[in-house]
């Protein structure tokens, strides 16, 4: 099972990206989690640049979404809302078909950020018929370094939460296949 993980933070030492990397490391047999590295390379969305003028990097991003059986998104809150870069990536997908039936799950690297959570639920629930607000994984990692995080997620209780979350993702994606 091929899952694409998308971080809403482009920060080198992002806690959200580090959480997604930890999920990739913890993926059970049969599940592969790949980190999407493209959203920082996307140009600013304009309907004038859609097909047939769609930039190649946008086509590559859309193809990555299409090829994934599910998405896991971890996104920080910027100014009580979605970060512009992440919203820009979603805007590029709106007129295509890649995200409509895609199972989407959330992971959060902080227990703060209620506004971005509401934004994520509204926006992702609009673009996908298979957005799952629950289960959501929340591992508070604010101000930890990627190295600290790699150790922190080995804590048995956190590891158990990660395993439960990934198991739920797996079952939800497979339920889609049966439908
Ligand atoms: C431009 C900017 C705006 C932010 N605005 C908020 C905010 O409105 N509410 C909040 O709780 N945190 C805010 N933060 C803090 C980030 O959400 C927080 O540091 C987050 O964990 C960063 O994620 P990352 O480690 O993945 O980059 C802001 C950070 C930045 C850089």
From TrEMBL:
<protein>
    <submittedName>
        <fullName>FMN reductase</fullName>
    </submittedName>
</protein>
<dbReference type="GO" id="GO:0016491">
    <property type="term" value="F:oxidoreductase activity"/>
</dbReference>
<feature type="domain" description="NADPH-dependent FMN reductase-like">
    <location>
        <begin position="1"/>
        <end position="125"/>
    </location>
</feature>
<dbReference type="InterPro" id="IPR005025">
    <property type="entry name" value="FMN_Rdtase-like_dom"/>
</dbReference>
<dbReference type="InterPro" id="IPR029039">
    <property type="entry name" value="Flavoprotein-like_sf"/>
</dbReference>
<dbReference type="GO" id="GO:0005829">
    <property type="term" value="C:cytosol"/>
</dbReference>
<dbReference type="Pfam" id="PF03358">
    <property type="entry name" value="FMN_red"/>
</dbReference>
<dbReference type="GO" id="GO:0010181">
    <property type="term" value="F:FMN binding"/>
</dbReference>
<dbReference type="InterPro" id="IPR050712">
    <property type="entry name" value="NAD(P)H-dep_reductase"/>
</dbReference>
């Amino acid at each position: 099972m091929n899952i694409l993980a998308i971080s809403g933070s482009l920060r080198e030492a992002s806690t959200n990206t580090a959480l997604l990397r930890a999920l990739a490391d913890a993926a059970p047999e049969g599940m592969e989690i790949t980190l999407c590295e493209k959203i920082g390379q996307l140009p600013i969305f304009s309907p004038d640049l859609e097909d047939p003028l769609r930039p190649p990097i946008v086509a590559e991003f859309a193809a990555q979404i299409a090829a994934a059986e599910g998405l896991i998104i971890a996104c920080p809150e910027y100014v009580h809302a979605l970060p512009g870069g992440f919203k820009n990536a979603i805007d590029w997908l709106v007129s295509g078909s890649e995200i409509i039936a895609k199972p989407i799950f959330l992971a959060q690297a902080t227990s703060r950020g209620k506004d971005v959570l509401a934004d994520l639920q509204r926006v992702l629930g609009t673009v996908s018929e298979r957005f799952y607000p629950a289960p959501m994984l929340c591992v508070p990692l604010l101000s930890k370094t990627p190295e600290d995080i790699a150790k922190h997620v080995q804590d048995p209780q956190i590891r158990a939460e990660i395993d439960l979350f990934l198991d739920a993702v797996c079952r939800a994606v497979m339920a889609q296949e049966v439908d």
